[in-house]
Amino acid sequence: MADRTLPRTDVVIVGGGWTGLTAAYELANAGQRCVVLERGGPRHDATHFAGPEEHDELKYALRYGHMMDVKRETLTFRHDRRQQALPMRRLGSFLPGSGLGGAGIHWNGQLWRPLPSDLRMRSHYTERYGADFIPDDIAIQDWGVTYDELQPHLDFFERICGTAGRAGNLDGEAHPGGNPFEGPRTSDYPNPPMQQPISNTLFGEAAERLGLNPFPMPSANVTRAYENPYGAQLHPCTYCGFCERFGCGYLAKADPIICVYDRIRDHENFEIRFGAQVLKVETSQDGRTATGVTYQGEDGLDYFQPADTVCLCAYALWNVHLMLVSGLGRPYDPQTRTGTVGRNYSYQTIAAVDAFFDDEIVTNPFMGAGALGVVVDDYNGDNFDHSDLGFLGGGYIACKQYHGRPISYQPVPEGTPPWGAQWKRAVRETYGHHGDLVVHGSSVSTPENYLDLDPTWTDAYGRPLLRMTFNFPENDRRMSDYVMNRAVEIAQEMEHVTSVASTNLAAVDSNYSIVPYQTTHNVGGAAIGTDPSTSVVNRYGQMWDHHNVFVFGACLFPQNLGYNPTGPLMGLAYWTLEHLKGDYLDNPRPLMDA
Amino acid sequence: MPRITTPARPAALLAGAIAMAAPGAAQDFDTQPSIREMESRLEDQHVLFGVEIESDVTDDLLELGRLVAMGGAEAGGSGMACVSCHGAEGRGDGSGAFPRIAGQPGWYLYKQLTDYASGARPNRVMSGIAQRLTETEMEAVSAYYAAIDAPFRPVLGTVDAQTLQWGGQLGAAGSAELGIPACVNCHGPQGTGNPPSVPYLAGQYANYMTHQLQLWKDGTRDNDAMNVMSAIASKMTEEDMRAVSEYYARVRPPEREDLSGTARTTAAEGAAGGD
């Protein structure tokens, strides 16, 4: 029981990151009184992220100054159902944020759209390769929403971020220099692509010689002074090399604070409460609607905030946790393969390829930006023939220059000892002569990878911890190996390259490790779809079982695509908000029949 | 093609000859700094900032730089000697009409000269001067002024505390309300610049900086690589510009000896115990 019940509000929003603040902006301007509950504190790019203090690698990149506190909330982890899960006591593989702007302040700004075929993955593979192509242990699904439906929203978010890039497909017409595989876009990127350094340029040239289609990575590191549709003013990027794990004091990396929060914070319908840890979504007696949320305030007291509509805008994992501890939806049971909440959890496969240059090529890796890259998409999604490959899905191959930080950036050629004099010499010799290639691959959902509540461990608020049961599906290991080998071919084709090294973090015969950083791209657990037996929310992001609860973020992905999730999930957010504003508020009801 | 290039192995600069810090002899405004003294400062990362000129900076180049500064050069000189406005030690004349250039990053000074010559930074006085300098002369005079460690002139005039407070706040934290990023992002924690491309603000003349901010805002000056300064200046009022300029005019960089001492210790350790 909460200590106090607060006055009712129209909408309560859990989480003050990209989706939460965007929901607040759109709904407050639609006349809804919005209360945003953010577990962390307030901050602003200008006052909190200015270099050189912000460029403290130890404090922010290695001691996770901007990330969530795992002493209060974390999850337990195991590889399979036979194991006893143990709590993740330190961050590692992924880095959820906390505080105003959420993880949106420490992203790299790699801003992608899904491929049209990504959104109807099961149908697409079945149509192209036959009904028997997809094995039984792969739980991939269609999203229930098409690329054409999301397109205007993907486009709008690109303009919110002042995205820099080059179109490859404008209204169906191919544009050289862009991504030839992308779905048709109605408008070009609002800003010109970033200026590429030498390593990325050599990568692009080599890829072209191999008959591939290189293009500049779409970037939310803004390339010129720009005003977004909300009136936010972004500044040009200085290529300082401190995007990922850092906030941007230059106001040059699009983030939820400068792009959205600054434009809504003074609105009469907007209120944000900091230090507000949401503990539970409360439901009505018949269980069919939510009545509001209970949260612990900064004063340690529990408050009940009644609301007509609840928007779950926490990080993907914590949205699912909140549903499970609140009894929203039906939890997934892997034994019977019934239930939906926690189902379809998936991750991202990462493989790294290092290219080492001769002395003629000086890369100056300290001059970089989070989304400074040249990419080929020829091996992503179903852009290549999968008939005889024994896997589905794919990934992009990028050559990036996103940081040259002294503690973390120590590329050494294969065969170098991991410490000692030889290692030090190798770091000195290769620091400025290294090309950084990554394979950023998709991850299919399977019946055995899922999220549920841990029977043993609890968080600081007495709630059972979220339990993650995950290992890389065999499909993804084979895919990652295949695409990594294509990346190695490109690296070997690059001019001035003297040696190439590669590592597949999802290698065959190795287990997923939750320790080394891979990506903060945890997806699924609250899949979107058109079938209530396999999805938590309908195609509008509305919960099947509780029509006044709308769910946002990457937890909606039924499986992970080969792209970074922020673009696709924000496309979904604007799609949901369009239907919430235009169709639901005047007549609250389930927007689809179950 | 600019002839100043980044070195292939920056570490080589540090690990090179390690000179002892020159004793900080009091400098008279009218005396020229000795070439020997300047040479010893070339080891300091705050002089050339990891950027080397195509040929090594020798005393010949510094001598040539001094000659150019005095108004003598191949094409009959620049037409006007640098010293007549900036002084032999690059301290300006104190009015703020001419900036202090002593100890600015060498590459920054060189780039300004090429931009004056090309018109990328239009200026009625400097454009004509720069156009009459050869490539080598621009390098030489940039290296010359970059290597000078001259004392600061006393700050003229008084400013109310509130203005200074606001200027300091803009410098250190910017403004969330106005959407202005902090100066320290690029110009360093004490306004000492960020080599090789970002100039120092600490000890620069307030009138000069206010005027430049206005030029950035007007779009007259638009010669930084990423057009960062125009975006920032466009959000500043005249009061903001004056406040931040008056503030930085009163900030002094840490003692040179301290800086070079630290750099040299590191280099020495690196050379001795790197393995």
General description of the model:
- The complex is a heterodimer of chains A (594) and B (275).
- Helix content of chain A is 21%, strand content 19%.
- Chain A is built from eleven helices and 22 strands.
- In chain A, strands 1, 2, 3, 11, 12, 13, 14 and 22 form an eight-stranded mixed β-sheet that branches. A six-stranded antiparallel β-sheet of chain A has the order 8-16-17-18-15-21, with helices on one face. Chain A has a four-stranded mixed β-sheet with strand order 5-4-20-19, with helices on one face.
- In chain A, a hairpin with a 5-residue loop joins strand 19 and strand 20.
- The longest helix of chain A is centred in the C-terminal third of the chain and has 20 residues.
- Chain A is globular and about 70 Å long.
- The model of chain A has no long low-confidence stretch (mean pLDDT 97).
- The N terminus and C terminus of chain B are likely disordered.
- In chain B, helix 4 packs across helix 8 and helix 6 packs antiparallel against helix 8.
- Chain B contains 14 helices and two strands.
- With 275 residues, chain B is mostly helical.
- Chain B is globular.
- At the A-B interface, helix 2 and helix 9 of A face helix 10 and helix 12 of B.
